[in-house]
Design a protein that fits this description.
single chain, alpha/beta, five-stranded mixed β-sheet, 17 helices, 11% strand, globular, signal, Sugar ABC transporter substrate-binding protein, SBP, transport
Length: 423
């Protein structure tokens, strides 16, 4: 009897093993932020996973970013549910609010690396609905690039710590003349982040809305933050040309020495490091407002599973492999994100003044990440059209700051209240 039971158990175990191998052979991974070098690195990591798990086959599907959202939606509608998907923060909220993403909390409890993740990593994993619906692989976090040479020429020895010092330093550096200005202002497309960060810092809160869905942008502190930027431009703290500057212009303005301070993410570091001596610049935390806190905008991306996925027990080990400390560091260094592990700043790659500001923001409670309300249907139009056009009018003196902000608040309140009505 014992022998027969053992034989049955063996047959069952072999059957389960074969079934698991069969399932493993069909794992699919969808990448949505694609470029040839990036895809090559991801493929190399997947090949390493396959080597460690003989019999496992992984299909990597790389979707061009411009059509990625629509193409992934088509895959899901047709029943082609990927096992692992690269999940940008702007999609996390949409999919999570529709209850489509797997709750990863039970799996995080049993993963031995969870305790090594930074608090902000876990907070972003849970940002959509309070439950972890992704394992972030890195952050795009705003911090303050500052030109040490220009500061020294202006008689300044350190970067500004407060918003008041920031405005004062910009004016002082602009007095150097020769076309030099203190701040690399992004007055063209993509300038929304700076307006929202400065308004939040002066208002002392990262909240965009109250419980009724009313925008907080008309609160007195928020208006002061917007006025600070308007005054900086109109009083010469930023170049007159910067009313039209986009990403390329502000980055090149910084590394060419036309402007001394730049708020940007780590991906700007690639071009700046190639054009400036390391000793000539550093990166500091964003200046704090009257509350003693700053609210640097944060973007992040990670790995998720859909609830509809049929192989989640096989997909999770792949996510943890891609997210382990060694792979995460290699990935972060390559794609220009900040890594997710405590103590990552001790890696020699990050042991430079160029990274100090970002790690302080990640580890200091006085720096609270500001996440944009990307769940709003009209956010894209607000971000790319409304802010650009109306802020340019105000900077050029064709409108006043309070009227501009009231228009923004009216638009966002309507969008938020419409969204609340669907919840």
């Amino acid at each position: 009897m014992t022998t027969r039971f053992a034989l049955k158990a063996l047959v069952l175990a072999v059957g389960l093993s074969a079934a698991m191998s069969s399932l493993a052979a069909k794992l699919t991974v969808v990448e949505v932020i694609t470029s040839p070098p990036r895809t090559a690195l991801l493929q190399k990591m997947l090949d390493e996973y396959k080597t460690q798990h003989p019999g496992t086959e992984i299909e990597l599907i790389s979707l061009p970013w411009g059509q990625a959202f629509e193409k992934l939606g088509t895959m899901l509608q047709s029943g082609q549910v990927p096992d692992v998907v690269e999940m940008p923060d702007t999609w996390q909220g949409l999919y999570a609010s529709n209850n489509m993403l797997e709750d990863l909390e039970p799996r995080l409890k049993s993963w031995d690396a969870t305790s090594q993740l930074t608090d902000k990593t876990l907070a972003m994993a849970r940002a959509a609905n309070g439950k972890a619906t992704m394992v972030p692989y890195g952050f795009y976090l705003r911090a303050l690039f500052w030109n040490k040479k220009l500061f020294q020429q202006a008689g300044l020895s350190e970067p500004p710590k407060t918003m008041e010092e920031f405005a004062s330093d910009a004016q002082r550096i602009s007095q150097l003349g020769n076309g030099i200005s203190g701040y690399c202002m992004r007055g063209g497309v993509g300038g929304t982040n700076a307006w929202m960060m400065f308004m939040a810092a002066m208002n002392g809160s990262p909240e965009f809305f109250d419980k009724q869905g009313n925008s907080t942008l008309t609160q007195p502190g928020a208006i002061k933050g917007a006025q600070l930027l308007v005054d900086m431009y109109q009083k010469g703290g930023a170049s007159k040309d910067s009313v039209n500057w986009g990403f390329n212009e502000i980055v090149s303005g910084f590394y060419s020495g036309k402007c001394a301070m730049l708020d940007q993410d780590p991906d700007a570091l690639i071009a700046i490091k190639n054009s400036m001596a390391a000793d000539d610049f550093a990166v500091a935390p964003m200046p704090v407002g009257p509350s003693g806190k700053a609210f640097p905008t944060i973007g992040y991306t990670g790995w998720s599973m859909f609830k509809q996925g049929k192989q989640k027990d096989l997909a999770w080990p792949l996510i943890t492999f891609l997210s382990d400390k060694t792979n995460n560091l290699a990935w972060s260094k390559f794609v220009g994100t900040l890594p997710i592990y405590k103590g990552a700043e001790q890696d020699p790659f990050y042991q430079t003044p160029q990274f100090a500001g970002w790690f302080k923001e990640l580890n200091d409670p006085n720096y609270v990440p500001l996440t944009m309300p990307t769940h709003l249907k009209g956010w894209g139009y607000f971000n790319s059209v409304i802010v650009k056009e109306s802020s340019q009018e105000t900077l050029l003196g064709e409108n006043d700051t309070e009227s501009m902000v009231k228009d923004w608040a009216k638009y966002l309140s309507k969008e938020q209240q419409a969204w609340l009505a669907t919840q």
